[in-house]
Amino acid sequence: MKPLIVLFATVVPLTISLAFANPAMLPKHPGYPMGKAVDPVTGQSLANDPGQANANKQEALANAAMVDDARSKQNLPFNQNDERLLEKPGAGLLPKVQGPNITIDPPVKEGTKMSAVPE
């Protein structure tokens, strides 16, 4: 009984995978055309993808670069607060914006000097 279950568990998935191996479901791509090579016995085409254009390097590189654009492209929402920005000076500095020119003074203007020798 156990060998029959193992046989059934291997044959059924293999049969299903062969049934769903439909070439029409595969993505279209530039392939390796063999021209009009035909099997002399059956008359079927010898090419895996008959009628496809020949692949070239530049087109293949461009298509490979565009594969993941939809997922990896950064789409940030429009921020209405950025309309007032005139200049972004960088990290740690406040940006210059349209409107009142506000300056923020540092919390400490001068420090007291402590001597290293205690008295």
Explain the layout of strands and helices:
Blueprint: H1 2-19, H2 57-66, H3 69-72, E1 85-87, E2 96-97
Antiparallel strand pairs: 1-2
Region (Disordered): 90-119
Keywords: Signal
Signal peptide: 1-21
Question: What features would you describe in this structure?
Answer:
Keywords: Signal. This protein has 119 residues and is mainly alpha-helical. It has one domain. Helix content is 27%, strand content 4%. The protein is built from 3 helices and 2 strands. Strands 1-2 form a two-stranded antiparallel ribbon. Strand 1 and strand 2 form a beta hairpin. The longest helix has 18 residues. The radius of gyration is 35 Å and the shape is elongated. It starts with a helix and ends in a 22-residue tail after the last strand. The mean pLDDT is 78.
Short description:
The protein is mainly α and 119 residues long.
Features:
mainly alpha; single chain; 2 strands; 4% strand
Low-confidence blocks of residues? none
Strand order of the largest sheet: 1-2
For the report, how would you describe the main beta sheet?
A: 2 strands, antiparallel
Q: Which structural class do the helices and strands define?
A: mainly alpha
Q: Gap between N and C termini, in Å?
A: 96 Å
Supply the number of structural domains.
1
Keywords: Signal
Signal peptide: 1-21
Region (Disordered): 90-119
